[in-house]
Write a structure and sequence with these properties.
With 244 residues, the protein is α/β, with parallel strands linked by helices. The chain has two domains: 1-36, no CATH class; 39-243, Rossmann fold (3-Layer(aba) Sandwich). It has helices at residues 5-13, 33-38, 66-70, 87-97, 104-115, 132-138, 142-154, 177-184, 214-224, and strands spanning 77-83, 124-127, 157-158, 163-165, 188-190, 202-210, 230-238. The strands form two sheets. The chain has a five-stranded parallel sheet, sandwiched between helices. Strands 4-5 form a two-stranded antiparallel sheet. Helix 9 links the parallel strand 6 (202-210) and strand 7. The chain is globular. The model is unreliable at 6-10 (pLDDT under 50).
Length: 244
């Protein structure tokens, strides 16, 4: 579609720039070539549950990573678009804590591309809920923004109030995997008013980053009470195993 006169004038006053380094780019909400090359997109074989890249001489069908093989998660399938390292870290932290809402559109397109094979016309998309106290600092739930955009791209239902955060938790950044799971236990519940929407439907739970999987475990366990057909998860980024 040909741009309007106003759009042309606006573009001349505020030319598009890279979301990471502010270098000139051809289109809005894009990355320059160096930043694109440094963005650690996950491609090739990945764990069927957590999205972590895996290496093997020969893979036949969906395959779990070693950790998910030893301890299968509370969901049936999982995808991730990026590894949480290099440029992805700065990008996600800016989106999460820096009011960079302009990052959500490209982030959601990457996430949609990563999890598209999990989506069906009757899939319910929801997001890991944020406790109200966190809203006071962040002003928005980044997982909810991603979920809304993914559902819109797929033209399927988004349920913003499916899950509720029962209590706030201490920051998990420096906690071990066991501590994360202990802190997150029973912190998320299914909203009784929305439980019927989940019955016998596939559900996709969205979050920004998966590290130990503790938060998504709490969300998946809460969803299980609604008797969904299948539970899947999708995150914008997956933390490499040696980083936690």
């Amino acid at each position: 579609m040909k741009p309007t006169l106003f759009e042309t004038m606006l573009r001349s006053l505020y030319p598009p720039c890279c979301l990471l380094c502010a270098a000139p780019v051809d289109r809005d909400f894009g990355l320059c070539p160096p930043c694109w090359r440094d963005m650690p997109f996950i491609s090739g074989p990945a764990c069927m549950f957590c999205g972590l890249p895996i290496t093997a001489d020969k893979l036949e069908g969906p395959t779990p990573c070693d950790s998910c093989f030893r301890a299968p998660p509370a969901w049936e399938a999982g995808r991730a678009a990026l590894l949480y390292q290099r440029s992805a870290k700065g990008f996600i932290l800016a989106m999460k804590h820096g009011d960079r809402t302009d990052c959500f559109k490209p982030a959601a397109s990457w996430l949609f591309a990563a999890c598209q094979d999990l989506l069906t016309p009757d899939t319910i998309v929801t997001a890991v809920p944020l406790h109200w106290r966190r809203y006071l600092n962040r002003k928005y739930n980044q997982a909810a923004f991603l979920g809304q955009h993914v559902a819109r791209l797929a033209n399927i239902s988004y349920e913003p109030f499916l899950l509720k955060r029962r209590r706030a938790t201490a920051p998990l950044d420096t906690a071990s995997s066991a501590e994360r799971h202990a802190r997150m236990q029973n912190t998320i519940s299914l909203n009784p008013a929305r439980a019927k929407a989940l019955y016998n439907k596939p559900v996709l739970i969205i979050d920004d980053v998966m590290t130990s999987g503790a938060t998504l475990t709490a969300a998946a366990q809460a969803c299980r009470a609604g008797q969904p057909q299948k539970i899947s998860v999708a995150t914008l980024a997956r933390t490499p195993k040696n980083d936690y």
